[in-house]
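Exercise 7. Predict the joint structure of the components listed below.
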Amino acid sequence: MSSETARTSRDKIVPEQEWTAVVTSKKPLFSLPVRELWAYRDMIMLMIRRDIIATFKQTILGPLWFIIQPVISSVVFTIIFSDIGRIPTNGIPPFLFYLSGNLIWYYFSACLTSTSQTFRANASLFNRVYFPRLAVPLAQLAVNFWSLAIQAVIFLCFYVYFYWTGAELFPSYRIVIIPALIAQAALLGLGVGCLISALTTRYRDLQIAVAPGIQLWMYASCVFYPLSIVPEPWQSLMVLNPIVPLIEAFRFSLMGQGQVEVWQWLVSLAMTLVLLVVGLVEFSRAERTMADTI
Amino acid sequence: MLAISVENASKVYRLGEINRSQFFGDAKRFLRALARGERAQLSDPGLEASETPDAPDLFWALRDVSFDIRAGETVALIGRNGAGKSTLLKLLSRITAPTRGCLRLKGRIASLLEVGTGFHFELTGRDNVYLSGTIMGMKRAEVRQKFDQIVDFSGLGQFIDTPVKRYSSGMMVRLAFSVAAHLEPEILILDEVLAVGDQQFHNQCIDRIHQIVNQGRTILLVSHSLSYIRRLSNRTIWLRKGEIVEFGPTDRVINAYEAESTVMRQSRRRDEEGKRAVFRSWRLQEGASGESNTLARPGIACSFEFRLDVAGALSGCRLEFCLSDPDEISVFSATHGFSELQTGAANLTISLPSLPLQPGRYRLEVKLLQRHEEIDHWICDPMLVVADSGLHSAGATAGLLALDSRLDVASVSGRSLHS
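Solution:
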């Protein structure tokens, strides 16, 4: 009988067999659970569906809110920065200029904000059941992409309208890079958001700092002014803001106005990848013990 | 083949709050690591545990726990509150990582404690069944296949396309449990079952659990009901203060566990001096003679004798006697009045013509009252043990009572009335 009592010796013999999960205290520095995420693809799809449905349940205007938000803010920008502040938009109709900036900026900031809340907003769920935690921020990217798609349609409508009424817009073959720009905005938001959500499992201060932080970041991101009017040394410094080349490249490819060099974009791409890796590393570290600290 | 293998698993928590001083600790550690050119590490309990394992603000919820569970086994987990049961379950269900050690799992693990996981109030019952099912690890196709079963089980077919925010809390729990009950994982955690819904639904749940248990899955059972554990599980793990006291056959472990609780209760009784009368001991008399607390022959007359120390004379007394199973389900109780008790010692004896009980341990409780005022109340130590005489009552399969039953079969000629 005594053989059946608990073994506490250090040298336990683990039989050779296949395991579906091995949980250890050792921390892998970086592991992307691609296979697990794939296994949970149905859940991710249903989470996306849930968030899209739930956001506008019992609202009258429903998804129209996705449109109203950037349109109103673009109208306000037009009045304040163009009509009153007289900031030039380099020949692009001001409204379209701001709308284009808002399009990219809103997607990026929405991805950042929603992924930065991953652990706190889902604490009770994460405390009860295991699934690859990264599924939640990934689903957020898709949810935000849905609103981006609606906004893009509206942008296109205004674009065609301004084009027909004779505005100086110069679309070029370069529009093929737009999907890449949008993907980069999403990954940048994901990286920074994951980093913040990982750090907020310990210190919640960051969570409070997100909203004002994003506000400040927007002022430095060419949303309502072209990079070309920024004086030195600020213009060189803005290379350090990875979202700037995205917005400028977007405007350049669609409307022929914008200032972006390939090397600037490469710097921005490199920064995006670094932030993404750091964010995912911290995220995977935090997910192991967040249940204890949050 | 093993379903679960746990190797030296430990889990350390830090007591107290995360606050500024800890932030400065982190910052200092970070800068020092940076200066040395090492990889910076945030302070975490694991790190502290390896530096100062006995620091007073560290709490070892589990310490060096190792065990194996074979596939298809039903294993129970017992221990007092805070013994580490929940922590162990959290590690096994991968909600949090161990501070040290390693856990290996074969197959999907799910828990019936996760009732309502991932439910969203704005979605309809149907959407929530799918969402909750996939969060708990099912494929969408699996949910679709079992959807009708799940809805049938919940009995909410009529409301399935209503947002769950319009559900009553009872309806919500029914739907949630129905999803969980159809998960069919390879390893199932059953935790403290189950105050769900009304009596009828509760019975339905219990039936379903028995059905799942009998499907040959690996089951980890956590319950405070020892008789339930005895009935369902072959082996039992006893945890105390984060360590395994014993892991072995259920009967042996539970007996040891109960013996320990008895010791604890006795020590509490010593403080009860200064009463007018105190129960001191009890013994069982079986048939003509015998003096123990073990009932060996449940079929014949027996009596319970209680020794009482009386500090001051009492009059208008009443004795209440209650016999119950370990889950405190009453088997038999009686009350008898008597006129007076003299100062000194007294024996009160309750006699029964027979006590046809199934083998096991039973709780005895006696209460002495004087005109509705309680003088002493004693949950008797040790418990009553009904020995397994090896003679099984004819036909009996389960239940509290050991009664012989008989079946007569008579064929009725001609046309049957029942067809």
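Discussion. Chain B touches chain A through 66 residues (CB under 8 Å).
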